[in-house]
Each structure stands twice: as C-alpha cells, then as structure tokens.
Amino acid sequence: MEGRRHGIRLGSEDLISLKAGPHRYNFSASIEYDVIENPSASSAADKFRVTTRGYMYHLLTEDFQDILLWHWHPEGHSHYTGPHLHIGKVQLGLNAVAENFQHVPTGRIAFEDVLLHLIQTSRVETLRTRDESVEVLMSSLQLFHQHRTWHA
User: Which of 36, 63, 121, 132 is the most buried (most CB within 10 A)?
Assistant: First the structure.
C-alpha cells in the first residue's frame, strides 16, 4: 500500500449527470494519491496518512462542452504543473481576452471545494437539503485543512 500511487475516479466512463434547475451538467473527478507513513503519528491508528498527488475535476455542459476544469498534474506532460483552472469556451464571450486553453493559477483545490462550488454557485441539486450538504462538506473541509501538510 505505501509508496504506490493510487487513484479514484468518479464519472470516468459515464459522466455524473447533475441537475441545477432547468440546467443539466456533466461532472467527473479524478484524484491521485499516495498512502505514506505519518512521522507525527501519536497512535497506531495515525501511522499512515493520505497525500494528494494530483487531480482533475471537470464540469461540462449537457452536450459535453467544457465549463470549468480544475487541474493539478505535477507529473504530467504539460509544461504547466501547478494547480490551475481552465475556463471553458462556452463561458467566454466573443471578445474575451482569456482563451479557453490558458492555465489560470489557483492554488490547490480540495474536492470538497469543488462540490461546494457546484452546490452554492452552480446551484446543483443535492439528495440532502442544500444546508445539510453544505454543512457536511464544510465539516469535511475543516478536517482536511487541519491535517494537510501544505498551506494555501
């Protein structure tokens, strides 16, 4: 387990369909991580921890056009390896100065941050009430911030 790259994919083959009022979106998430020894472990239960090594979160239109793409691929083939955002062409006006392939620096983005954006900004419907969903994600995000080894 330790020292081996792991990955989790949501919506890798069939995208996850999201509904936001009259709008429908497609979403996928891919996270690469390692399980590493925790040098500050105070118990056997804390002996290991998970560290993120990269991610790709994609929000697409119903007809599969890019809206927002959050990427961090430090070991990828791109010349830009820092965390960044791509703004989809459908989000840019005809006279837009930005281009959809530009890498807009973001700092690292937690999965919970993306879900909060989808719920609060894009108004994606949730199985729980909106307030309950936000509360669960904020609680998880707080734990994430307490235990991360990097700082925004």
Answer: 36
